[in-house]
Amino acid sequence: MTVSRFFRSRRRRFLASAAFGLLALSACSSVPPAPNAQSIAGLTPSGRVSMTQLVVEGMAGGSGTLTFNGQNYGFKLLGSVVGPGGAAKTEAVGEVYRLNNLSDFGGLYSESTGKAGLERSGMSELWLENKAGVILHLIGTTQGIVLTLGRNEVEIRLMN
Fold first, then answer.
1. How many domains does the chain have?
2. To which H or E segment does residue 5 belong?
3. Domain range holding 81?
4. What's the rounded Cα separation, in Å, for the pair 160 and 158?
5. Which long-range contacts (CB under 8 A, 24 or more apart) does 76-79 make?
6. Residue 79's closest CA among 155, 158, 130?
């Protein structure tokens, strides 16, 4: 899916605008510490994730697959970069921790890098956590440039 096709439909533009408003408001709240290697020390992965995400002017969208209990589950993601944004494509794979029930996978995931700046093409390591305590540790590659204020958020929804 090209970036222009993703944002072309009215429904997607509306959802992107709504998500941006929600995420911008959430950026004003206190930011919990980002998960890291210490957060998963001694834990066994509960699943695996692969995903592709496109960022255009601060809005993000994409899709992926969760492998959990021997089954594959597709998901969509929609989110924002708190800051001016840019244009980038990220492809990442990684492990899921603290996922006991499939229903806990969906929701708003936050990544707080603690630093603002220009994120450029190259290898990336992402640590995300949702309110249910599910942690995603992803390794991937990014192509493009994004200017961020150090906080990224993405809503993950399992597909039926």
1. 1
2. helix 3-6
3. 3-158
4. 7
5. 76/156, 76/157, 76/159, 77/51, 77/53, 77/154, 77/155, 77/156, 77/157, 78/15, 78/16, 78/19, 78/154, 78/155, 78/157, 79/19, 79/23, 79/109, 79/152, 79/153, 79/154, 79/155
6. 155
Q: Running DSSP on this structure, what letter comes out for residue 8?
A: T
Query: pLDDT tens digits, the chain, 160 residues: what are they?
Result: 555 555 555 555 545 554 554 444 444 444 456 788 888 899 999 999 999 988 887 788 999 999 999 999 999 999 877 666 778 888 999 999 999 999 999 999 987 554 566 666 678 788 899 999 999 999 988 888 776 666 678 899 999 7
Q: Are 148 and 71 in contact (CB under 8 A)?
A: no
